[in-house]
Amino acid sequence: MQSNLQKVKPSAVIALTVLGILLVWSGLLWRQRIFFCDASHIAFRAINEQHLQIQQFRFGAFITQMVPVIGAKLGLPIKLILKAYSVSFNLFFFIVGLVLFFGFRAYKLLVVFAFYFLLVSTHSYFWPNNEIHQGMGYMFLLFGALLYTGSKTKNLFLPVLFMVLLGGTALFCHPLAIFPFVFLWVYLIIDKSEWPFSRNATILLSFVAVVLVGLKLYVSNKYAGYDMGLFHNAANKGNLKEVLNAFSSPMAQEIYRHTKTNYWQLPLVFLAGIFVLFRQRKYVLAGWTIMSSLAFFVCICLAFGGYLEFYSESEIMPGIILMSTPFVFSLLPSLK
Fold first, then answer.
1. Rounded to 5 degrees, what angle do the CA atoms 109, 333, 285 make?
2. Helices 283-303 and 265-279 meet at what angle, rounded to 10?
3. CB neighbours of 72 closer than 8 A, spacing ≥ 6?
4. Residues 6 or more apart in contact with residue 216 via CB below 8 angstroms
5. Which residues, other chains included, contact 143 with Cβ-Cβ below 8 Å and sequence gap of 6+?
6. Does the reported pTM lie above 0.90?
7. 288, 179 contact by CB (below 8 A)
8. Where are the beta strands (DSSP E) in the chain?
9. pLDDT tens figures, 216-237
10. Which of 57, 104, 111, 225 is the most exposed place for a label (fewest CB within 10 A)?
11. Among residues 303, 325, 311, 302, which one has the least CA distance to residue 258?
C-alpha cells in the first residue's frame, strides 16, 4: 500500500499544481466570474445587507459568502471585495488540496478532486458559486479525514464527528452531492485496500451516512423549492419508458455533442478504469461504477429538461467522480 501511495504521489503533485493555477486564474478573471449570473446577485445582496445569503438550506456556502460580508463590514473597496470573492472559491479548493496532500496524504482523492475541475469544465469555471463545488470540497475533506483517522486509531469519536460535520455540510450543499458521496462510500468499502474500519465500525458509520442522506432528501423535498422541483421532475418520469427515453432526451443529446468536442477525455478515463478493474478481476467494483454512472446520467437527464453550458456543466461535474475513480485508484498505482 505504501508503494502504491508513492506511485500516485507525482500525480497528486500535478493535481495540486492544477488547483493552484485555477486559483491564480480566479484572481485574474474575477470580472468574468463575478459579473456573471448568480455570483453578482449574491455579492450584491451580501454587500448591501452585510449578512450571509444562504439559499435552499445550502449552508456550506458560508465558506465563500463570508468574504463579501466581512469586506462590506470593514468598508473595503468594492473592487477588492469582488476580486476576493472570486478568489475565495478556488482558495477553498486549494486549501482542501493542501490538506489532502500534506495532512492526510490522500493522494488518490486529491487526483480525483482535480479531475472534478478539469474533465467537464469549460463555461462552468465562470459560474463559481454553484454550491455543488463547495460540497465536493467538504466531501473530499471528509473522506481524507476518515481514511487518515481510521488508520491511526480505533476510536470512532472523530470519524463520527467528521461524518456529521463534513458529511452533513457536503450533502446539504446540493442534492447531487448524494451521488458521489454514496458512490465513494460504497466503492471504498468494496475495494477494502483503502478502507481502515472494522465491520462494526463500518456499520455504525454507514448508519450515520444513511441518516444524513435521508435528512437531506427530506429537507430538500419538503422545504427547498428549487430542489423540490428537480425531485418532482425526476419522480414524474420515473417509469421504465421515461428512463429509457432519457438516453435520447434533449439533455442527453447535448451531452453527447459536447463530449465529442469538450469532454472527450472523460469517457477515455472511464473506459481505461473499467478495463483495469476487469483485468484485476474486480468485477463488483466495475459493476458498481457502471451502474452508478448510468444512474447518475439518467437522473440528470430526467431532472433537467435542456442544456445550458455553464449551468449544465456544473450539474454534470459530480459524475466525473464516479467515472474517474477506478482510473485513479486502480490504474495509476499499477503504472511503473
1. 70
2. 150
3. 46, 47, 48, 50, 81
4. 171, 172, 175, 178
5. 106, 109, 184, 188
6. yes
7. no
8. none
9. 999 988 887 777 777 666 666 6
10. 225
11. 311
